[in-house]
Amino acid sequence: MVYRPDQGRALNWRKASASAEGSDCVEVAAAGPSVLVRDSHDHAAGQLSLNSTQWRALVRVIRSGELDGR
Asked: pLDDT digits over 48-64, tens only?
């Protein structure tokens, strides 16, 4: 994972449709071969850039519940 500050690129940021307004969540955007992840409430905090292997691993542990309660 590499921290990448927001470089002002026009990206299509998305978040879960089940996300309620004001709730804590993350947004994701495709950027070439990378998936960018950022805090939906604090864009100035920057973003993570994940390659496809890292993205699949993150999705796998989220779905398995391994990160619940952390």
From this structure: 999 999 999 999 998 99
